[in-house]
Amino acid sequence: MLNGLLTGAVYGLVALGLTLVYGVLHIINFAHGALLTAAMYAAYVARASFGVDPYVAALPLAALFFGVGYLVQRLVIGPASRGKDENILLVTLGLSIIIENLMLAVFRSDTRSIDVPYAMEVIEFGPALLSYPRVIGFGATILVGIALFVLMRFTATGKAIRAVAKERTGAALVGIDVAHIYAVTFGIGTACLAISAALLLPSFYVSPRVGNAFVLVAFTIVVLGGMGSVVGALVGGLVIGVVESLSGLYLGESLGQIGIFLIFILVLLVRPTGLFGARA
Amino acid sequence: MTGRDLLPIAVFALLAACVPLFVTSNVVLNFLVFTLIIALAAQGWNLLGGYGGQYSFGHAAFFGTGAYLTAILQVRYGMNAYPAFAAGIALAALVGLAIGFMAFRSGLRGSYFALVTLAFAEVFRVLANASEVTGGAAGILIRLRADPMNFQFAERGTFLWVAAALVTLALLATLALERSRLGAQLVAVRENEAAAQALGVDVLAVKLRAIVLSAGMTGAAGGLYAQYFLYLDAQIAYGTWISVEALLAPIVGGAGTVFGPLLGAVILHGLAEATKTIAGRIPGIDLVVFGIVLILVVRFPPRDIPGLLKRWRR
C-alpha cells in the first residue's frame, strides 16, 4: 500500500508532463510514452557506458530533453498538425512509432536494467519496509512539483504559459510568441519525463516498449486528475499507484493492470472532466 | 451505383484474381494475403473514422474478437470453420455496438474517443492473455487440415482469391454506404455534428450503425488472419499494432474514400518491404518508415500536393 503510494508518485511525475502539455496546448501527446522510453535509454547509457549514477544524471538529462521537446514541438508537431486536434493525435502517434522502433533498432528487444548498489536497500518506516529508490522518487516528485508551481506562478515564462493556456489569441495580441511558448511547454513536459526516467531506472527495467506500460497509466492519471490540472496529476498518480498495487495483490500479476484500464474507461464515460478538472 | 463506379473495383478484382496464376513464390503470396487482410481491417476503420470522423485507436478490439472467436469455436467446440468465421464477425459487430453505445452515449469525441477505444482494446488484450479459453499467454493454434471444407487450402494462391474476394465485397459495401442515406448522414456528422443534429439527423443512431459495420468488417479481417496463419496470441489479436495499421492505411491512402484503405495498405507494406530489402533485417526499421510516412501525410495532405508542386515549379 505504502509502496504503491510511492510508485504512484513517480507515475504522477510522468503524468505531470502530459497534463501540462494538455493544459496549455490542448493536445493529447501520444509520443509521451515513447519519449519516456528514450529518456530511460539515455539514463541507461549514462550509467552503463559512462558510469554516471541515474540520480546524478537526472538534471543534465532534464536539460537535454527540454531541448529535445522544444525542437520536436517547434519543428515537427507544430508545423505538421496545423492546429487540428486529429492531426496532432496522428503526428504524435507517428512520432511514437518512430522513436520506439529506433530504440528497437539500436538496442534490440532485450530487456535491460542497471545495477546500482542501493537498488535493494530498504528504509524502515514504522512497520513498513520502503525501498530506497522509491523513497527518493517520492521526494524528487514533490520537489519537481514545487519547482513547477513556482515556475508557473512567479516567473515571466510561467505567466506567459498561463496566458497562452487561457486565451491563445489574446496572448498573441499582447506580444507573446505563442509558438515559442508552446515549444517551451512541451520542453518542460519532456524534461519532467527525463527526471521520471532517471528515478525509475534503479527499480525498473528498460525495453523499447516500456513506454507503453506507462502511457496508458499516465493518460489514466491525467484524465482522473482532470486534464491540465497539476495537483490533479499528482493526486491521480498516488491513487493509481495504490490501485495498481492493490489490484496486483488481489487479481494476480497478469490481471493486475486491468484495474487501471477499467478506472480509465469509467472516468472517461462518467466524468470526462476528471476529479479536479473544470474544463470540459 | 453506376458502371463507372464499379469499373475500378472490377479491375482490382480481376488483377487480384490473376496474381496466383503468375506468382508462385510463397513469400510473395504471404505478403499479398497479409496486405489484403490489413486492407480489409483498414476498410472497416474507414467506415467509422473516414466517413464518420470518429478516430478509433482501438480497432484491435474488433480484429481480435473476430480472430479469437473464429479460432476458439473450431479448436474448443469443433465447429466448422465457415460458421465460426461468421460468428466471429457477428461478435465483433456486437462488441462494436457495446463500445459504441457506451462511448457515444457519453458524448466522447475526438481525442477522448480515441483514448477510450484504445483502453478497451488493452482491457481485451490483458483478459485474453490471462484467460483459459484463449489459451492464455501460450496462444491458440488451429490444427492444419488443408481442405476447402475447413476453410483451409493446400495452395496459398487459393487463399489469396478468398482474401481478394472479401476485399472486393468490402469495396462494394463501402461504395454502397457512400451512396446511401446513412453515408450522407455520417459525412454530415463528421463535418458538423451540431448542424447535423439540428437538421434532424439522429446522431447517436448514425454513429452506432457505423461502428457496427466498421467493427464487423474489421472482425472479418481478424477471422481471416486466424484462418490463414492458424495461430493467435493476445499480442497478435489485440495488440496496438493492428489498431495502428487499421488507421494508418486509410489516412495514408485517403480517409473517407472507397479505395483509400486498400491503396494505403499497399503503399505502406510496399514501402516496408522495400525498406527491409534495402536496410537489411534491422528490427523495427520498417515501422520507422510507417511513422515518417504518417507524419508526412499529415503535414502534406495528398490533395495539397498538386498545389505544392505548382509552387515548387515557379
Automatic annotation (TrEMBL), chain B:
Its main location: membrane. The chain crosses the membrane at residues 28-48, 55-75, 81-104, 158-177, 210-231, 251-272, 284-302. The keyword Transmembrane helix applies. It is found in: Cell membrane. Keywords: Cell membrane, Membrane, Transmembrane, Transmembrane helix. Pfam families: BPD_transp_2 (PF02653). It is a multi-pass membrane protein. This is Branched-chain amino acid ABC transporter permease. The keyword Methyltransferase does not apply. PROSITE patterns: PROKAR_LIPOPROTEIN. It comes from Roseomonas fluvialis. InterPro entries: ABC_transp_permease (IPR001851), LivM-like (IPR043428). CDD domains: TM_PBP1_LivM_like.
